[in-house]
Specification:
This protein has five helices and five strands; from the N terminus they run βαβαβββααα. The chain is an alpha+beta fold and 149 residues long. The protein has a single domain, classed as Roll (ph1033 like fold), CATH 3.10.590. A five-stranded mixed sheet has the order 1-3-4-5-2. A hairpin with a 6-residue loop joins strand 3 and strand 4. The longest helix has 12 residues. The chain is globular, with a radius of gyration of 15 Å. It binds a DNA duplex (12 and 12 nucleotides) through loops.
DNA sequence: GCCAACGTTGGC
DNA sequence: GCCAACGTTGGC
């Protein structure tokens, strides 16, 4: 799950402990959120920074429910085609698990053949919420916990 | 700031 | 329903 740290960062989530993942306005990303179950783990990816990459782990705390920002005309995430009777967009709540000891950069993922099939490599982080194979998830976290290569 | 990828929109 | 035009996004 990607976020621009200027908007919402792993440190903010660490201080809140429970955060909410709102503002997703892509059907594919929304559908991935709807597939999440409480207790599922997720990687926190920082985008639009140099370098981009993964630097945290969180757990789904509350499964998808309507994102209230879609009904708020003063919100940047307002959607005038949505309504409370027919909500279009969802959010999930997430619980902080850990900040990784170092950033695992996008470059590093691109350079490791084990990750060649990851969506983030194949399609980029344009898809802001995307599924990650358990084996990739574990390998990324393990890599962060080893000393820098 | 630029560009490529790609999702969305609207005219037909 | 098709598809060209357009807008948005993320990486560089």
């Amino acid at each position: 799950m990607k976020s621009e740290p200027d908007v919402y960062s792993i440190d903010t989530l660490a201080s809140e402990r429970i955060g909410t993942w709102e503002g997703v306005r892509s059907y594919q990303a929304r559908n991935h959120m709807r597939a999440m179950k409480r207790g599922d783990l997720a990687l926190f990816y920082h985008s639009s920074v140099v370098p981009p990459g993964v630097l945290g782990v969180m757990r789904i705390h509350r499964e998808a429910y309507p994102d209230p920002t879609q009904f708020d005309p003063s919100s940047p995430y307002y959607d005038d085609k949505s309504s409370p009777s027919a909500p279009r967009w969802d959010r999930v709540d997430v619980e902080f698990v850990e900040k990784l000891p170092r950033l695992v950069t996008l470059d590093e993922l691109k350079g490791d053949p084990r990750f060649a099939d990851m969506l983030v490599i194949r399609r980029g982080m344009r898809l802001s919420v995307q599924p990650v194979a358990a084996s990739d998830f574990k390998a990324i976290v393990a890599s962060a916990k080893k000393k820098k290569r």
